């Protein structure tokens, strides 16, 4: 491959997938680190251009996943993800009155999940990957991915049920609080 061909191929891959890689990086590392993860991901892509398959997105997301783990292994990303999810849910929710309790339950349930469970759910729900492509990103077989996704969804449902039950409990006040109103 000539330098011009390599440059054209890289540019085409970048133009087609930059936004998706950026969205994935935000969900994994937060906005403050997403640019670094994306930059490093595409640097790896340039250096390993001949290894990129015909369907590059799963490969790119796998690289982004590894880059994020290497660079930010010790940082807690849970609060950044919850903040992003709150913003996304707020924008997407048309029926505010009914959605408030559901949103809160989802956020609480997602925050309680492990990072791996959140990743499985966001790869398919937010990033729109097929199970096969998402399995490539996390480095497992499609069958294993389906099992893990099923379990993550079950834990999310259970967490939402728990969060909604707590939300529906009447607020308890002391006599002193009642008289001070």
UniProtKB/TrEMBL annotation:
It comes from the Bacteria. Residues 104-156 form the RNA polymerase sigma factor 70 region 4 type domain. InterPro entries: RNA_pol_sigma-70-like (IPR039425), RNA_pol_sigma-70_dom (IPR014284), RNA_pol_sigma70_r2 (IPR007627), RNA_pol_sigma70_r4_t2 (IPR013249), RNA_pol_sigma_r2 (IPR013325), RNA_pol_sigma_r3/r4-like (IPR013324), WH-like_DNA-bd_sf (IPR036388). GO terms for biological process: DNA-templated transcription initiation. Residues 159-181 are annotated as: Disordered. Residues 13-77 form the RNA polymerase sigma-70 region domain. Keywords: Sigma factor, Transcription, Transcription regulation. GO terms for molecular function: DNA binding; sigma factor activity. Gene3D superfamilies: 1.10.1740.10, Winged helix-like DNA-binding domain superfamily/Winged helix DNA-binding domain. PANTHER family: RNA POLYMERASE ECF-TYPE SIGMA FACTO, RNA POLYMERASE SIGMA FACTOR RFAY-RELATED. Belongs to the sigma-70 factor family. ECF subfamily. This is RNA polymerase sigma-70 factor (ECF subfamily). The lineage of its organism: Bacteria, Bacillati, Actinomycetota, Actinomycetes, Micromonosporales.
């Amino acid at each position: 491959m000539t330098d011009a061909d390599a440059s054209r191929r890289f540019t085409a891959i970048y133009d087609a997938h930059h936004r998706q890689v950026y969205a994935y990086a935000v969900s994994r590392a937060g906005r403050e680190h997403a640019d670094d993860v994306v930059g490093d991901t595409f640097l790896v892509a340039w250096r390993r251009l001949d290894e990129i398959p015909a369907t590059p997105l799963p490969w790119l997301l796998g690289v982004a996943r590894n880059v994020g783990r290497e660079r930010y292994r010790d940082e807690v990303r849970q609060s950044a993800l919850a903040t992003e999810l709150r913003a996304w849910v707020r924008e997407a929710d048309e029926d505010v009155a009914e959605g408030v309790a559901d949103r809160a339950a989802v956020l609480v349930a997602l925050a309680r999940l492990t990072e791996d469970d959140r990743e499985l759910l966001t790869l398919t729900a937010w990033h729109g990957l097929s199970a096969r492509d998402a399995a490539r990103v996390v480095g497992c077989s499609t069958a294993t991915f389906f099992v893990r996704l099923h379990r993550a969804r079950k834990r999310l449902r259970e967490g939402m049920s728990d969060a909604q039950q707590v939300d529906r409990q009447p607020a308890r006040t002391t006599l002193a609080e009642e008289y001070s109103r």
